[in-house]
């Protein structure tokens, strides 16, 4: 994600820290091999000046932005000149009744582009497919999976530390990390869970809501880091979150909830023919809206940032950069707000759906 | 490329399910449970402390009111005692006065009675003295008159006449 954006601002810092993974590569650049990464040479002031015109011709902002948003099989940080700075990730593939485990480096050809095939498998538009067209179950540790694992470790270590300090400082005022997160935890419990689900049931759902909130928030924030994965802006992630919300809501549906769906009380019988299908569609639309809202908001934020940066390379003007850079900084600040807001909205909406499902009849 | 962004990858779905499941299990069991418990415990203890403070405050107010009442009662008691003492004093003085008056009157009465007695005695003595004096005078007069014979005979005759008449 946001490789170019990153290289724009933090390139120098990164160059120092990531030389370990650098793969020196000085092959001649050919038109089809020039990807957007190569553009970063232009942005970094200390990049080699060669091949400017050629690379600029090949610059395709749409492709660049979509590549930054999409998942990939290696963790690519930056390309300076013709040097790719990336970490290869393990590929785990189920194909033709066998499990294959190999490094994503196997797909690299002699130019260090992902064009090589390995054991009848090849990468096409970021997806592993079989050359003979047979079914491939790709369970690779992709960039998003790796980022998920990092967020898992981060979340678990942070909240275990907090839980420990609650045990050690039982009855005392919160301190450190504990006092940073306590207001948020209490807010989710009191203003989200208790408010929307009700006094009677909220305790059952608070752990789920807290997990969802912090998972989305942390991954949103991690996604804003330069060079990081776009986890919550990936539809597979939001699909799973929405699916879980769907099952949590409907498996806890009380008779009042189903009554409102299949036979809305206080509505003329003939109207139910119209209303019941609408309500049934609503059951599915709620999680679908959750899925699309989070995905679209995060993706849109990243696209705006990438567009602001791409504009510099399209116009190749310092004047445009002078406008685009402050504006992208401003957008990044907005994105920090959006990161919290979208996590909050997802949690609040999930809690209202659960609240409507567990609500007892009051008519 | 755009389609691939909108197309959820099966592998990532599986990984997300597994990772989110692990995350939920770990956090729910080892983080949310103790955190929620500790928060609830602390809230309960704060609530207890607050209600205790309110109770104590009420008690102090009650105590103050009680004290004021006690003071008022003591003041009333003092007033009552003073009033009673004054009344008793007044009554005692009145009684003493009455007693003194009565005693004085009795004394006067006794004195009067004694005086009357003395006067009666004096009158009686005077009367007796007068009678004795009168008899002596009469004796002397009679002795003088009866010194000759004729006067004596006349008298005896008159006395005899008187006696006969009886």
UniProtKB/TrEMBL annotation, chain A:
CDD domains: ATP-synt_Fo_a_6 (cd00310). Keywords: ATP synthesis, Cell membrane, CF(0), Hydrogen ion transport, Ion transport, Membrane, Signal, Transmembrane, Transmembrane helix, Transport. Residues 1-22 form the signal peptide. The keyword rRNA processing does not apply. It is a multi-pass membrane protein. One of its GO terms (molecular function) is proton-transporting ATP synthase activity, rotational mechanism. The chain crosses the membrane at residues 145-163, 205-225, 231-249, 270-288, 327-354. It is found in: Cell membrane; Membrane. Pfam families: ATP-synt_A. GO terms for cellular component: plasma membrane; proton-transporting ATP synthase complex. Belongs to the ATPase A chain family. Key component of the proton channel; it plays a direct role in the translocation of protons across the membrane. PANTHER family: ATP SYNTHASE SUBUNIT A. NCBIfam families: ATP_synt_6_or_A. This is ATP synthase subunit a. It comes from Arcicella aurantiaca. The lineage of its organism: Bacteria, Pseudomonadati, Bacteroidota, Cytophagia, Cytophagales. The gene is atpB.
From TrEMBL, chain B:
Keywords: ATP synthesis, Cell membrane, CF(0), Coiled coil, Hydrogen ion transport, Ion transport, Membrane, Transmembrane, Transmembrane helix, Transport. The chain crosses the membrane at residues 12-32. The keyword Protein transport does not apply. GO terms for molecular function: proton-transporting ATP synthase activity, rotational mechanism; proton-transporting ATPase activity, rotational mechanism. It holds the Pfam family ATP-synt_B. It is found in: Cell membrane; Endomembrane system. The keyword Oxidoreductase does not apply. Residues 53-91 form a coiled coil. It is a single-pass membrane protein. Its main location: membrane. CDD domains: ATP-synt_Fo_b (cd06503). GO terms for cellular component: endomembrane system; plasma membrane; proton-transporting ATP synthase complex. F(1)F(0) ATP synthase produces ATP from ADP in the presence of a proton or sodium gradient. F-type ATPases consist of two structural domains, F(1) containing the extramembraneous catalytic core and F(0) containing the membrane proton channel, linked together by a central stalk and a peripheral stalk. During catalysis, ATP synthesis in the catalytic domain of F(1) is coupled via a rotary mechanism of the central stalk subunits to proton translocation. Component of the F(0) channel, it forms part of the peripheral stalk, linking F(1) to F(0). The b'-subunit is a diverged and duplicated form of b found in plants and photosynthetic bacteria. F-type ATPases have 2 components, F(1) - the catalytic core - and F(0) - the membrane proton channel. F(1) has five subunits: alpha(3), beta(3), gamma(1), delta(1), epsilon(1). F(0) has three main subunits: a(1), b(2) and c(10-14). The alpha and beta chains form an alternating ring which encloses part of the gamma chain. F(1) is attached to F(0) by a central stalk formed by the gamma and epsilon chains, while a peripheral stalk is formed by the delta and b chains. Belongs to the ATPase B chain family. This is ATP synthase subunit b. It comes from Arcicella aurantiaca. The gene is atpF.
